Every structure is written in structure tokens, then in C-alpha cells.
Amino acid sequence: MQDVEGKVAFITGGASGIGYGMARVFLAAGMKVVIADLNRAYLDEARLALRGNNAVHFIELDVADRAAVEAAADETERVFGKVHIVCNNAGVSGAIPMDEAAWEDWDWVAGVNLGGVINGVKVFIPRLKAHGEGGHIVNTSSMAGLIPLPDTGGIYSMTKFAVRGLTDSLRLTLARDNIGVSVLCPGLTRTRILESVARPGTAPAEGATGDGAVFNNLDAGMDPMELGEAVLRGIRRNDAYILPHGEFKEEVRGLFEEILAAFPDDKDAPAERVAFEDRRRRMTEDAKAGKPRG
Q1: pLDDT reported for residue 207
Q2: More confident residue, 133 or 152
Q3: Residue 213: is its pLDDT beyond 60?
Q4: Residue 147 φ/ψ, nearest 5 degrees
């Protein structure tokens, strides 16, 4: 989507950190922006900072609440009209090792990080298709969706791998509808995500200051505005992956080389199996090219 001026963007987790960086960049590009966030204090801060700007609207939203996401989409259309860009960005970190986590810990992190993305795409895809003007969806994963984290980062990493897979498949699905889809994989960024290390109603996990302390220094992180600029470039170019943090390139290369090395050297396979995979590959290539189903 090259021409973004006047278009409407909906951003979850939009009142601080990465989401707020996106919002400011989008506003500067002439877009109308809905900032949706669960944290009322963050919303109040953003509202104060952007006071007098008639191109922005604020909604208090729990992305894990499906009915609330639907209502937020309705409100967005009432205020600004058709939505063209959806950024499913809201997320929580969690800070308890996978082998110690309670059911409730798994449910909370997955409900926000993955469930929130599912709710966003489920609610907005029919609306993007209905107006027929094209659009773009950006789902925030993480470098932890490419490179697994140990210990206190494990549940978070699990959800971010899932967001990455969801987004890759969604891109293939929506190409024929002129709707671009990108997965955003940030590294260390100056955000407030460490304020969400424990699920509501519980004390912060010990791991937040113990084994997981290496992840706690966000002062050296990327400026969210710089990251927002990367997102806007990715939307305009319809990039499949938005990877703003170049310091990860060699580590990712090493990971994929490890995966490739795990395949057997013997490439022979039964003809029927080869034919099956050839058909699958053709289906994928057709989807990438935006060819109709059938």
C-alpha cells in the first residue's frame, strides 16, 4: 500500500512503546489512527501528548475479549470510516519459567499475544475485504519468534512463533484480495512490556529479576519512532518480514544453517511423495502470486 495518506489505521497496544511509535509515524504520514490499549493511564498520557490532533481516536480495549474487539472495530468505522491498516501489536511478556508456570500463566500470555492477534484478524478481515480498496495487516511477533528464548522467556517465545506462523499463512491467503500481510519481529526496543511480567492479580515473578534479568534493560533499545518508520516502509513495500534489528542477522543465519544441517543428505523419496509436495509447492506459489483459488 503505497498511498497511505488519508487511510485509517487501527493499532492495538498503541498507547506506548512500539504501538505508540507506529501511531506517531502514521499520523505524520497523514493517516487517521485509532489507538487501542488496555492501560487507561497509557491512554491518558497519549491523549494528552496528542491533544488537538483530530486525526487520532482512543479506545480502551482488552484484545483478548472478542466482543470488545468487534465493538472497537464498529467504533472505528463510526469515527473514521473504512479501515485499511490493522496493526495487531498488543502483547505481554510473562516472566515465569515454562516448567514452573501455572495453567493461568499459559492462558494469560497466549490469550493476549496470540489470541489478541487472532481476534484482530478475525474481526477486521471481512471489513477489509468488504470495501475492496485493499489494505495491510501487521502482526507483531518478535525476534523471539525466530530465535527461541529459554526459561522465563519460553511462553512468550512460544506465542511469538505462533504469531509468525499465523502471519506467514495469512499472507498467502489474502494476497488474492489485495491485502498485504507482514510480520514484525522487533528486538530490544524501548517499551513498557516489562510492566506486564505478571498476570493481573499476582505478584511479579521472581524470574523477572533473577534468570530473566538479562532481558530487563530496555534503555539500550531501539527508539519506537525508528521502529515505526520501519513498519511504514514495510507496509509501503508489502514486505513479508519487517526486521528492524540488524544485529540479529548472523544469529538467524546460524539457526537456519543448523536446521538445514539436520536434513538427511539422501534426497531420494518415493515418486508419490514427491508429486504430493510438488502440488503443495505449486499451490503456495499460486497463492503468493495472488491467483484465485480453484
Answers
A1: 40
A2: 133
A3: no
A4: -120, 115
Question: By three-state DSSP, how is residue 102 classified?
Answer: coil
* Close Cβ partners of 154 (under 8 Å, ≥ 6 residues apart): 97, 98, 148
User: Rounded to an integer, what is the distance from CA 245 to the centroid of its chain?
Assistant: 15
- 9 near 87, Cβ under 8 Å? yes
pLDDT of residue 42: 95
Mean predicted confidence (pLDDT) in 115-126: 98
Of the chain, the end-to-end C-alpha distance in Å amounts to: 26
Question: What phi, psi does 49 have (nearest 5°)?
Answer: -65, -30
CA 230 – CA 225 distance, rounded (Å): 9
> What's the pLDDT tens digit per position in 220-268?
789 999 999 999 999 999 999 999 999 999 999 999 999 999 999 877 8
Q: Rounded to an integer, what distance in angstroms lies between the CA atom of residue 197 and that of residue 267?
A: 46
The enclosing H or E element of 241 equals: strand 241-242
pLDDT of residue 250: 98
Catalytic residue among 20, 42, 156, 241: 156
> How high is the mean pLDDT of the chain?
92
pTM over 0.85: yes
Q: Is 31 exposed, middle or buried (0-12, 13-18, 19+ CB in 10 A)?
A: buried
Active-site annotation holds for 156: yes
Residues 6+ apart with CB under 8 A from 211: 97, 151, 152
For 156-172, what is the mean pLDDT?
98
Q: Mind listing the domains of the chain with CATH numbers?
A: 8-257 (3.40.50.720)
Please give the Cα distance from 38 to 17 (Å, whole number): 13
Say how far apart CA 46 and CA 43 lie, in whole Å: 5
Q: Which backbone phi and psi does 128 adopt, to 5 degrees?
A: -65, -40
**Residues listed for the chain:** 294
Distance, CA of 101 to CA of 179 (rounded, Å): 38
